[in-house]
Amino acid sequence: MLFTEKLNISLAIVVISLGMHSCKTVIPEDGLVDIPVTIVNTNIDTIPDSIKGLLVFHENFQKWPREYYLSPTLQDCETDLMRSAGLVSFFPTTVSVIYDTLKVDYSLIDFAVNPECGNPDGTSTATSEVSTGYVALQCPVYYTCGHYSKGYLETSPLPSVSYVEFTVSYSYSSSNTYEAGVSLWKKGDGDIDTVKVGTYVPDDPLKGQKFTVKINSTNVTLRFKSEKNSGVPIINESNINHAIRIHDIYIWKPVK
Q1: The whole model's pTM is what?
Q2: How much is the average pLDDT of 113-130?
Q3: What DSSP element (H or E) covers 220?
């Protein structure tokens, strides 16, 4: 068997601060920086598991509680409004998950968790490649208080990563003209600064797509960030979801 089974998973959500407010005057922390889209490594079928190494864990968010929607109960999968569509968030939320003996702390901001819904075209199942369950990352929007959304998921440092795989779709109300996939960033041993690995755009955003990316790094932090098309003006907060969904994350390590 070339992978470690996902065992003994415990989940604890620690809210550092809810940090969500209606608008007030602030100075944008990040400004607006658009990143040109670069589609990288879309042909994943040529990389066998024996090359990727040993599977450390597969996170599909199906055990996470539903969080950060305006409605306290599940609504229609495609119209359930994320809080971040209209409410600014100033502090990240930390979610800690234990995979066997490995504890991973996820830092998230401008996001929502849906453990039940799948891709918009309706083909997701609990075990499909683009599975049910996802973290939705707010695509960049401008809040009228002068703050820009960030929309990212970041891991705590991972001991050793050979490859990372992840599946991406868009919310139904998103489009190819505004949303521009997920950018992946890393900082590990030997990296002075956080390094952009690439931006990953599914061929069919409503169906979703799996991407396989070579990392080959130790003590590495991975950040997944939602992106907008650099050629389109940023939109203001609204009552419509503009989000990039990450359904699955697979972390592989080298075989010793």
Answers
A1: 0.83
A2: 91
A3: strand 209-228
pLDDT in tens, 218-245: 999 999 999 988 888 887 777 777 889 9
CA 111, 112, 116, 120 torsion: positive or negative?
negative
Phi/psi class of residue 19: alpha, beta or left (left: φ > 0; alpha: ψ in -120 to 50)?
Answer: left
Q: Which of 19, 18, 14 is nearest to 90 (CA)?
A: 19
Q: Are residues 35 and 183 in contact, defined by beta-carbon separation less than 8 angstroms?
A: yes
Give the pair of three-digit tokens for residue 45: 């079928």
Residue 243 within a domain? yes
Both tokens assigned to 211: 């991407």
Domain span at residue 55 reads 10-20+30-253
Establish if 2 belongs to a structural domain.
no
Q: Evaluate whether 245 touches 208 at the Cβ level (below 8 Å).
A: yes
Q: What is the DSSP letter of 62?
A: T
The count of domains in the chain is: 1
Q: Any idea what the CATH number is for the domain that residue 248 is in? A: 2.60.120.260
The pLDDT of residue 212: 95
Does residue 5 sit within a domain?
no
Q: 72 pLDDT band (50/70/90 cuts)?
A: confident
